[in-house]
Queue: 3 jobs
Job 1
Amino acid sequence: RGKKSGRGAGERRIAYDAEDMEKFEREDRERELTRQKEKQAEVEADRSEAVQEAKDMGPIKEFEEEEEEEEEDTEKVEEYRKKITALYKRFNPSKVGDVEGLMLKYKGKEDKLCAAIENKYLGQVREKIESIYQKHNPAKLNDVDRLLHKFKGKEVQLLEAIEKRYAKMAISEKKEEPEKKKKKTEKESEFEYIKPLLIKRMKPHVLKDALKDRGLSTQGTKKDLMDRLIAWQEENC
């Protein structure tokens, strides 16, 4: 009887343990389910908040975009004003005072106004650039189209840069001219004029010495030497 009583108590403990285990597992599942529901609720809340924020930001975004467009338009208008002013300053200074009035008159059509004024005066820019190159550097005439394309919208600044460059070159050349003339005069004074008849009577070695003194070639026949010396005298004496 004692053994049976002990075995019955053990079986009851096992039953209690199994029941506790089931209860623990059930509670654990309920807690996990609760956590999932809370997490899902947080996700839904975040989504709702994001949707609401997007709705709230809609008018603000539109306002900011409008502001950006207005800033771009303002920059373009200012660029047109500068171009028109530069063209008038260069080619028609009396019209500079009319720029603001024109900008108001053609408000919203500044691009067309600027294009019309450019078409009127850019031909003169080309003519002036070609004139400068024709006088100082003819080899650059073939580059005019390329330069005007490269500096489109800045043609007046291009012309001013070219004028400035070649004006400096002209000043430098003028400074060098007196020095060149002085050197030429000094060189000429080193040699006395020899009559052509006397040159023809010179012996070949004397002719060569005279040519050598003057920095000329001593190659050729006697006639070549005589002609060379006579030609040099015609130019320098």
Note: Helices lie at 2-91, 99-105, 110-136, 144-150, 155-189, 196-201, 204-213, 222-236.
Job 2
Amino acid sequence: IAMSNLCRDESCMILEDKIESVFGACFSTHGLGGVLTCGSIGIKAGLSHSPVVGGKEQYVFFSFPHIAIDSMNAIGKISRPNRPGSSSACGALCACLADFQKDGVEANCRVPGVHDAENPEYSILKQRLARQLKSEGCNPADLDLVSITQAAERTITNDLEHLISQAVDPTKANYAVFTGVQIHNWASDLTDSSIPSLEFVASGKSYTVIDGVKKPMDVTVLPALAPRQLRLLGAVSEEQHPDNGKMAFGSSIQEIPRGYLLRRVGGAAGTRYVSAPDM
């Protein structure tokens, strides 16, 4: 079973669709900014749904905070269907960055387990980031959206690995872990169909644990996907929008089908961006 931990932002569902096209329905532990708040009991709930192969349960953990870098190279900017102008991604990490630059890292540290009851996820995300940055000796003046997103990936990966240590029995299960940062390289103007929208993942940690033995995986040295593999990964979006599965770049980069993108993120309710007979 795929255990998927992404930000709650609807833009992140493009990546989740790709994961589910391979592994089937995910058990989701999503949170603002990708923060993990489900605890070991939440992780165990998902693990209890996993398939059993050769007498062992099988899991794959995916965890990715996200950032937007649009087609004009504007960091943190993302266009959304039927919404004028651009918005931010990740909005939660943008807010953390502003708070750290205003108040400092130390002022945002809290005792673990203490959070704002009105904004639980955001306050947990911010205090975990603050403790991570403090331990790394970070100067808030040196932070930008890229560096705080990278810090979020380190923080959330540490949290995930701790939860795995509490929830997984390696004598009864085999599993893999893939972490990194999801990158939205979407068109700065979604009304311009000539500008491709792309998705990337900057890899973080990747490894397998088979029969209790941990084996690192360097995904950066894997060969490019074959056209057949790309078609399989794009099957969901291409089946829904076969006329939009065009524009392949080389052998390993493909545009997100435009009609699928605009509908999937939930904003294409009119004809401004999408024209279809039923609309």
Note: Residues 5 and 63 are 5 Å apart (CA to CA).
Job 3
Amino acid sequence: MALFSPHTSWDCVPGGINNWLVSPYGPGKSRPVTLSTSTIFPGGFSHTITMAGVAVSTEQLQPLLAMPDISVSIDTTAVTISCPKSKLADIISALPASLVDSVRITAHTLPPIPHTGAGQILTLDTSLTLSQALDITKKHLAMEHIRLAIANGICMDTPVRSIAVCAGSGGSVLAGVKADLIITGEMSHHEVLDFVHAGVSVILADHSNTERGYLRVAKEKLEHLLGPEVNIIVSQVDRDPLQIV
């Protein structure tokens, strides 16, 4: 039997588990808590080498111009070289000694992937009370009982204007997030206390309870992609190992 487990990929992609988890609370503006970054640099170039304000001829740069997998731009006032990190030493060695002191190396950061990343934080167009948010969460996750830590100075009628979610274990992803309510599967005792003392209420639904409902969404997506000839089955007996009794 072949097995494919997208797990964290489904947490992070647009239309994935965290989008589903934050979807029932009403319209608003949502974004990932932490944006994912690309695994490759544009053009494959992680660094730029510049030499400005120096006199240089094309003949002096012939060893450089013959080098593969780099990009060289020359004008009357500067030389700019785009390259991967692995080429830096070769490029410096190929430069005339008179130019080495004028070299400036810039390391680029990997670009973010729009709308993709861990967790989601939603700013609601219309606020809910904490009690309403709790009821919505129970219905969405099909849970009769759920754990709630109420923030200091907050009551069940306090307005909730922002909600941050992370399917599964959200302690590290959501650490330091500024929201009125946090919803995740699990986090440590001390992580809960940190949020409560910071004025943030916390709902813990247990790990897989924050993910399992998305299987219905995934089933519909796969049926659309694969067609009626493929039978998509969602388990009817799978459940979180932790039960509230």
Note: Residues 209 and 240 are 6 Å apart (CA to CA).
